[in-house]
Design brief:
Elements: E1 11-13, E2 16-17, H1 29-41, E3 56-59, H2 73-88, H3 96-102, H4 106-111, H5 113-125, E4 128-129, H6 130-143, H7 159-170, E5 174-182, H8 183-186, H9 190-194, E6 201-211, E7 218-227, H10 233-241, E8 248-251, H11 257-264, E9 271-276, H12 297-301, E10 308-311, H13 312-315
Length: about 325
């Protein structure tokens, strides 16, 4: 893993101040390490120089670029959709999971485990074209608010991470989302929220079908899961779609461990980054025992592998873009 120890540079030359590329980051070691790393790999005179074509940075979304408590935002969307569907047609409520979802009983849906979550996702995410689905997501994002913060979900992106993405692109990096979230869901907001275009969003996807009819040719979402972009699936998808190991990889849970491990095992300078949720006052505090975003291996093994563990309470001056 790459380690660099120079102090944070304050000037480009005598009397000329640099603008702070990460203003929402406190002046801690985390900020210093990030800036030192980026400056080193983008300096043609450095032995650690990385050519622009190889400057790839991948980041998880849930819990890394925006919030994920009390449950994944996409699952909240699915539960809201089922509730709306049930108002129009109560006969769809054929299981305890769907009945719980219609009642917005988040705990009951989560208590049902993976099968319960998948059932809710299949019912709310299939049987329509991709265009119809994404229009529904856009409408939900424009109106739905978080049960704790009262913010719209797209206002709960993390300002420090939005700044980091912008900084990396300014320095010639190509930034990607690599998330367990649904690819069609994230593509609705990723460009506006993060500056990441749809073709650089990698995620879980349902099976799809090509159909033609009165509305012309359509890509239709089917109930079956096509690929789960989580854990070992993340490096597999990066290899398949990007074709290069990232120079920078960031996440917040053990679902991101394989991506960061594989990325930082490559030759040359690499930076692995874990966002550690330590701020119960401004956000949430959770790691080892959490039902969402569980973080064990990243804490136990990451530091020994040279990864940067970002302490939200200590390292971030601000949390959400919307507050």
């Amino acid at each position: 893993m790459f380690r660099f120890s120079l102090a944070l540079p304050l000037t480009l030359m005598a009397g000329v101040s640099l603008a702070d590329p990460l203003p929402s980051w406190n002046n801690t070691d985390s900020k210093t390490r990030i800036i030192d790393f980026v400056e080193t790999v983008t300096d043609p005179a450095s032995d650690s120089y990385v050519t622009p074509g190889d400057r790839i940075a991948t980041f998880d979304n849930d819990g890394t670029l925006w919030g994920e408590q009390p449950l994944y935002f996409q699952l909240i969307f699915a539960i809201d959709v089922i509730g709306a569907m049930a108002q129009d047609d109560p006969s769809i409520l054929t299981s305890d999971t769907l009945k719980a979802a219609a009642n917005r009983d988040y705990k009951a849906v989560l208590d049902g485990g993976k099968e319960s979550i998948l059932e809710a996702m299949k019912v709310s995410h299939s049987g329509m074209s991709v265009d119809e689905f994404q229009a529904r997501v856009a409408e939900w994002l424009a109106t739905a608010t978080h049960p704790d913060t009262g913010l719209r979900y797209d206002q709960m992106t993390y300002q420090p991470m939005v700044e980091l993405l912008r900084y990396l692109r300014d320095e010639g990096f190509k930034t990607y989302i690599v998330s367990g979230g649904g690819i069609h869901f994230m593509r609705v907001f990723a460009e506006e929220a993060y500056g990441i275009p749809p073709e650089q969003v990698i995620g879980t996807y349902t099976a799809t079908e090509y159909r033609t009819g009165d509305d012309g040719p359509q890509i239709v979402k089917a109930p079956a899961i096509g690929f789960v972009d989580d854990k070992e699936g993340k490096p597999i998808n990066i290899d398949r779609i990007i074709g290069k190991r990232p120079v920078i990889a960031g996440g917040n849970s053990d679902g991101d461990f394989a991506m960061i491990e594989w990325s930082t095992a490559g030759e040359g300078p690499r930076l692995g980054l874990i966002v550690h949720h330590t701020d119960a006052a401004r956000e949430y505090s959770y790691d080892r025992d959490s039902h969402i975003g569980q973080l064990v291996d990243g804490l136990d093994k990451g530091p020994g592998m040279g990864w940067l563990i970002v302490d939200m309470a200590q390292d971030w001056d601000r949390i959400y873009t919307g507050r």
